[in-house]
Amino acid sequence: MEWRNLLLIGGAFLGAIGYGLAGAQQATEPRSVDAAPTDEAPAEEAEDSQPADAAEGTEASQDNASVEPTDSDAQPRKVAWDEQIEGVLTKRYPESVADLKLIQTQTQRVVEHAMPAVVAVQVGGAFGSAVIVSPDGMVLTAGHVVGRPGLPVTFIFADGSTAKGETLGIYREIDSGMMKITDPGPWPFVEMAEAEKPKAGKWVVAIGQPGGFDRERTPPVRLGRVLFANDEVISTDCTLVGGDSGGPLFNMRGQVMGIHSRIGRRITDNFHVPISTYHNTWDRLVAGESWGGPLGSDEVADSRPLLGVTGRRGGSECKLTEVFPGMPAHRAGLKVGDIVKEFNGEPVNTFDDLVRMVYGLEPRNEVKIRVLRGDETMDVKLRLGGVRQPLPGSAEKPKRKESKPKKGGQ
After folding, report:
1. What integer pLDDT is reported at residue 293 of this predicted model?
2. For 158, which of 34, 87, 110, 219 could close a Cys bridge (C-beta 3.0–4.6 Å)?
């Protein structure tokens, strides 16, 4: 197995949910198969859909519309595991070169085991990542990648071959979502981990397709550790970027323990939907239910401003790689591919410029944005949104409202 650029550090970009903006940082590649990012807002608009991440992607091959599924055993394969591996992985940190080599070997096993089940998904004009968890083609992804139930989906495998399917249910508040491959199986799949809260320090592997599906590149692999976890979120230091949304987070046994959702303000705060929520809401997701309100809102908020776009950091222009459905930018008519030239009269040269300018304002502030769309220059006015309280998993605690005394002094 060839390995290139196995990233051992954490943090980068995954969804601008609630934080107004987040930048995409190009990730490099490791070993084999599929997945893809979000490029454009879905052709069929997802009403009140939640944001998270995505980046520019490449159109799926139209000449591979119907392919034969890969053979897969009825039972998931197991990744090698013994007391020595467990002993090293439960240490506070590696103590020797031998420890590092064992971690590397185990990571390679996990990736080789998991890659066939990691897929890129295309919903309308939007791309994301996902993972197959049953031989009949049940697929886990992020809620904002689903958009809404009943939309057609194209699943893109490592070699560029495709299969057809549809979106199922969404739990918007948690950002969990499900899809199904409707072409006949069986399909390669991986096992879901038990519904338990992972401990801080646990080693994990993140896979996705940042920057878009690329036949010349295998999906980047990132090795990291759990920072904290609760019933609503897992936070890790795995580097995540635009297009990783909906991709799987694996434990070192090769089981799916989370789905990539969003990042925090710091580069080391990356959030994943816990696998427990998929266990607990499986029947509702399979039935195609959609419930829970989105985290973003343009109502009065006392925290961060929200524009609802992402872009690629490090470039020479501020090109939008995703515009989140239901967010202020989307409602104002901004689109993927727009190049932001001015923000409130100030020149915008990079996506970092735009992030800085948005963070300098308050929720509900009105702003004027000048964008270049093709050869046309457009001015757009909108009101920034905001988040009423810290996102699930944030290190910040929501402020407690002071209870008003009841009449009569009680």
Report:
1. 63
2. 34
Task: Write the burial class of residue 359 (CB in 10 Å: 0-12 exposed, 13-18 middle, 19+ buried).
Answer: middle
User: 130-164, pLDDT tens digit by residue?
Assistant: 999 999 999 999 998 898 999 999 999 877 889 99
* Residues forming a β-bridge with 306: 385
**What is the amino acid identity at position 185?**
G
Task: Name the nearest CA neighbour of 328 among 298, 286, 283, 300.
Answer: 298
- Does 52 score more than 70 pLDDT? no
- What is the C-alpha separation between 260 and 222, in angstroms, rounded? 12
Distance, in Å, from the CA atom of 90 to the CA atom of 79, rounded to the nearest integer, reads 17
All domains in the chain, ordered by first residue:
21-291 (2.40.10.120), 305-386 (2.30.42.10)
Among candidates 293, 311, 331, 329, which has minimal Cα distance to 50?
293
Return the higher-pLDDT residue of 308 and 134: 134
Average pLDDT over residues 62-77: 49
Alpha carbon distances (Å) from 9 to 29, 36, 215, 237, 262: 14, 22, 25, 7, 17
Helix (H) or strand (E) holding 141: strand 138-142
Residues 350, 317 contacting (CB under 8 angstroms): yes
Beta strands in 151-255 (DSSP E): 152-156, 162-171, 176-181, 203-207, 221-229, 234-236, 248-251
DSSP 8-state symbol, 361? S
Q: Decide: 354 and 311 in contact? Cβ < 8 Å.
A: yes
Least confident piece of the model among 52-61, 73-82, 267-276: 52-61
